[in-house]
Amino acid sequence: MVPACLCNIYRMPFDLPFLDGLRVRSSHACGRLPRLLRFARGLAAIALATVLLGPLQAHAQAGKAPGLPGTGQATAGMATGVGATPAAAADESLFDDPGHLRSALAAGADPVALDAEGRALLHRAAERGLTEVARVLLAAGAPPDHPDARGYTPLYYAAESGEVELVRLLIARGADANARALDGTTPMHGAALGGSIAVIDSLVQAGGWTTRLNKDGESPLFWAAGAGSTAAVQRLLDAGALIDTTDVNGNTALHLAAAGGHRETVRLLIARKASRGVFNRAGQSPADLARERDEDEVARLLGASR
């Protein structure tokens, strides 16, 4: 089918070269032209439409859009974020050696090519804590704050990996210490889960918040407590984390530590005056959760026994 924008192509003020001898302009009123000239103009419009639409139809049948003029980049790649050589995103060998990666980039590998999860090479290098690989990618133009399909930036993955040098590198290159994923998670949540005190400190120094909640109402403190990372809990509290915040289910950090049987974390939270009398939406206290999971020692710490 011919698009509507081309159906009226005869109304545009362009010359019809093969009718020059008759001095016809396409902006003339159609009703005043002899029938023969109207027919000729119609043929010209159809021919022009065929020339314009032919490449589009051919590419559509091939399942892709043509490249943008002067860019050498496919419009499909523009829409999905996949670069000229998306296969690079799946090449595991690129992570084995920074020298190999440099050679691949010099040969045309795209530093921002995305995998099926919308993650670029930098996301995957950060997840593995590969600082030197990340350095090569950043030097090649990889953006430090590009989110993946879930909205997670490389800094989140680096923070969770616990590699403080990598975290500092990304921050120095402009990564946002408070970047929020689609579920509200921040790099500080990743640091809390990873348990690195140095990473938490680096994020705090870069302006990272310890009180940001994700969509489940969980602050980084919840993640550290749930993981039993006592040192991370201590550091987050020292940096201003709120100890008795409740999530969407009414649980506190103490609930999560108790449910996980993390005795030292529970002791620390009790010492820091966490409330033992908060009941979640199911009517359970931290001690109730400990008993439910046969964590008798934790239940005794919380002032209850079986």
Describe the protein.
The protein has helices spanning 4-7, 35-61, 75-80, 98-106, 121-127, 131-139, 154-161, 164-172, 187-194, 197-205, 220-227, 230-238, 253-259, 263-271, 286-292, 296-301. The radius of gyration is 31 Å and the shape is elongated. Among the domains are: 4-60; 92-209, Alpha Horseshoe (Serine Threonine Protein Phosphatase 5, Tetratricopeptide repeat). Mean pLDDT is 78; it is low at 1-41 and 48-90. The chain contains 16 helices and no strands. The N and C termini lie far apart (76 Å). By secondary structure, the chain is mostly helical. Helix 5 (121-127) runs antiparallel to helix 6, helix 8 (164-172) runs parallel beside helix 10 and helix 11 (220-227) packs antiparallel against helix 12 (230-238).
Key features?
306 residues; Serine Threonine Protein Phosphatase 5, Tetratricopeptide repeat; 0% strand; mainly alpha
CATH superfamily of the domain at 92-209: Ankyrin repeat-containing domain
Q: What's the rounded overall pLDDT mean? A: 78
Largest sheet: none
Task: Quickly count the helices.
Answer: 16
Terminal Cα span? 76 Å
Compute the gyration radius: what is it?
A: 31 Å
Quickly give the CATH architecture of the domain at 92-209.
Alpha Horseshoe
Helix content: 40-55%
For the secondary structure, the number of strands is 0
Following the backbone from N to C, one meets helices and strands in this order, namely HHHHHHHHHHHHHHHH
Q: Helices and strands: which structural class?
A: mainly alpha
Approximate shape? elongated
CATH top-level class of the domain at 92-209: Mainly Alpha
Beta-strand fraction estimate: under 5%
The CATH topology label of the domain at 92-209 is Serine Threonine Protein Phosphatase 5, Tetratricopeptide repeat
pLDDT < 50 stretches: 1-41, 48-90
